[in-house]
Specification:
The protein has no helices and twelve strands. The protein is mainly β and about 110 residues long. A hairpin with a 2-residue loop joins strand 8 and strand 9 (about 75-80). It starts with a strand and ends with a strand. Residues about 1-10 have low confidence and may be disordered.
Length: about 110
């Protein structure tokens, strides 16, 4: 099974993905889909700590873990990243900060 985190305005489609970094929104064709094995499911979990099963990634400039999240913004629900305290997402060419978000979690 494949789980895709995407919206109309950001995320991944048509061979491109958009992400935020360094205060800006960037575009890339070098990305991977989140894939889960049979018997596992992907869901959103809104909590004040990083939950068990949270999707983990790394920021290349400092090799620190970031977590996949869905940011709940005035623009809609947008995929982003979180350091466990606040989240960031790309919008309109800029990197925006968000404190209202849910973690992307994979569990059996």
């Amino acid at each position: 099974a494949e789980a895709v985190v995407s919206t109309q305005s950001t995320g991944a489609r048509a061979g491109k993905a958009w992400y935020s970094f360094g205060g800006k929104e960037h575009e890339s064709t070098d990305f991977h889909w989140i894939k889960v094995s049979r018997g596992y499911r992907v869901h959103q979990e809104k909590c004040n700590h990083v939950p068990h099963g949270a999707v983990v990634g790394f920021q290349h400039n400092n090799n620190k873990a970031v977590f996949g999240v869905i940011c709940h913004t005035p623009h809609g629900h947008i995929p982003g990243k979180s350091n466990g305290q606040e989240a960031h997402y790309g919008w309109g060419g800029k990197e925006e900060t968000c404190r209202n978000f849910s973690y992307i979690v994979v569990r059996q």
